[in-house]
Amino acid sequence: MKSTGMTRPLDVLGRIVIPKEMRTSMDFNVGDPVEIFMDQDTNTLAFRKYTGMSCKMCGSIEQLTYFKESFLCNDCIRELKSGNAISLPKKDTREKVRRSHYTTQQMIKKLKELMLELPNSTQKEYAKILGTSQPRISQLKKLL
């Protein structure tokens, strides 16, 4: 790991801001989940973009197998076994969801309207429509 020479202070809540240059080079966007790792021997923190359960090679989320701390899809495994491993990665088929940034009051209002419009929907469905997480929908429902 190399030092960048950049420093950032912790705020009163223990947060730091990742410098824009690093966010850009690591393809971090607003709302992206980030994994945090800690090496206790060296007191080092490391960050990486969280990809969840998707193929390490092509990004597919279907028919995954766990192999050496990574997920691989059946198609990539077949390609590797056949010796045809030199190919361009497949296009990411996961739906890109942009997180919306509204105040709590705006989100409550939108959720109320949505609940009136679609009363039988689940919190997960409301979350997908509003571009937020299911736990956030649960929090907003408690505030109603």
TrEMBL record:
GO molecular function: DNA binding
Pfam families (UniProt xref): MazE_antitoxin
SpoVT-AbrB domain mapped to chain residues: 14-41
Source species, domain of life: Bacteria
PANTHER family referenced in this protein's UniProt entry, alphabetically: PTHR36432, TRANSITION STATE REGULATOR ABH-RELATED
Protein's name in the database: Transition state regulator Abh
Organism: Paenibacillus peoriae
Lineage: Bacteria, Bacillati, Bacillota, Bacilli, Bacillales
